[in-house]
Amino acid sequence: xxxxxxxxxxxxxxxxxxxxxxxxxxxxxxxxxxxxxxxxxxxxxxxxxxxxxxxxxxxxxxxxxxxxxxxxxxxxxxxxxxxxxxxxxxxxxxxxxxxxxxxxxxxxxxxxxxxxxxxxxxxxxxxxxxxxxxxxxxxxxxxxxxxxxxxxxxxxxxxxxxxxxxxxxxxxxxxxxxxxxxxxxxxxxxxxxxxxxxxxxxxxxxxxxxxxxxxxxxxxxxxxxxxxxxxxxxxxxxxxxxxxxxxxxxxxxxxxxxxxxxxxxxxxxxxxxxxxxxxxxxxxxxxxxxxxxxxxxxxxxxxxxxxxxxxxxxxxxxxxxxxxxxxxxxxxxxxxxxxxxxxxxxxxxxxxxxxxxxxxxxxxxxxxxxxxxxxxxxxxxxxxxxxxxxxxxxxxxxxxxxxxxxxxxxxxxxxxxxxxxxxxxxxxxxxxxxxxxxxxxxxxxxxxxxxxxxxxxxxxxxxxxxxxxxxxxxxxxxxxxxxxxxxxxxxxxxxxxxxxxxxxxxxxxxxxxxxxxxxxxxxxxxxxxxxxxxxxxxxxxxxxxxx
Length: 547
Hints:
The protein is 80% helix and 0% strand. It is an all-alpha fold. The chain has a domain at 2-51. It has helices at 2-30, 36-49, 60-94, 98-118, 124-143, 157-178, 181-197, 201-222, 225-244, 257-274, 288-312, 318-338, 344-364, 370-387, 390-410, 415-434, 445-465, 471-489, 492-516, 519-546.
């Protein structure tokens, strides 16, 4: 009996200890201070059990300290080692002994790689750092054989570039073999640096394009999407720096073929990244990767084209944007047929129509180009029907609104444009109402914007385009048309527009016409207003009786 009771007490004691340990571990994970009662219990237990659980007294700071000591100091030590070897190389090179500096540098790099090999079992992270910085140091030594030194050992730029490319290729191979994205990013960085140090235009762009293509290929094969985004960023940054720097060795004329080649290479590089739109969805990379790549590439390309046009082709950019528009529209059709990502055709179509807008503006200039731009917005809406794209429809709606505001703010005197705006707004509103299911439009927000534009632009167009004595009569006629449309279409929106038009006509009749219009036209205007008002009133009385 006593034995059973002792066993029961021991089991209860063990359970109590486990409960306390679980509570303490949970508090440690949350970074909270140990409760006093738990600490008192542990102290009491330690008095009885000695140092059995003394190793559990681990503070949160010790975790941070361990990470800092293992990883942070490994990085710091390798960075310092890199500068030490670089300064050692520089010392012998400054003494006029480039060959000695090369030998010393190679011996130092060999030592780093030997350390990496010997430490790979006992100090895995340190070994990884030695291996990574070994490639960086070796690249630095080979780079300084010709570039960025006053005492080059190699007089040939081509030979140095070949050696650098061989080194980068070896690093690519090792990175893929070891499945190391850290080594891969270093390899990509060194490849872009190799392209940038070259003073030859085609070499610079070809290396950069090959790097971009390799990044997209590795994303396709191994789903390394972060590396691809990284390469996209540094590639376009290198392009922008190349474009902005002073090319003293180039002829600075608008027709310089070097910068026409730049347009071609910019476009081809962006096209390489555009291929990701054909990548099928996968659980190995986030769905937003494709959208992020397309948007980043589009924004980078836009920044490059803006810089290129402003710096080199302010008067000769029309062919560039014509090519962009043809490519973007054609590619959007291809994506519509074959891409699994439904938003991708809309993005390229919008970019293509933006390029068309730039081309039209470059040919016809403002304000003459406004009419074509406004008509284009209706064509974009028709294309949105085929794409079944709510995004294109929404953006195109605000585009028409901004175009109208821009036109009224800058000119507003062309009757062709004045009457084109309400015509396009009316047709767009009817098309959206007709095909709202196809466009996946669930509210009247977009249609209301078009009707709002129709109402005010038609008032403005008739006011600007007709003689003063006919304005009130015309506005009354428009109000009547709105009411007829409300009956035919069975839409209350047109009745409200008709009433609003009547109110505007009444205000204009009593404020302007009474003061400025001849008597005969005043009589005509009042009669027209009376007839239309009484007719509409009779319609409402009849409708209410039916109700």
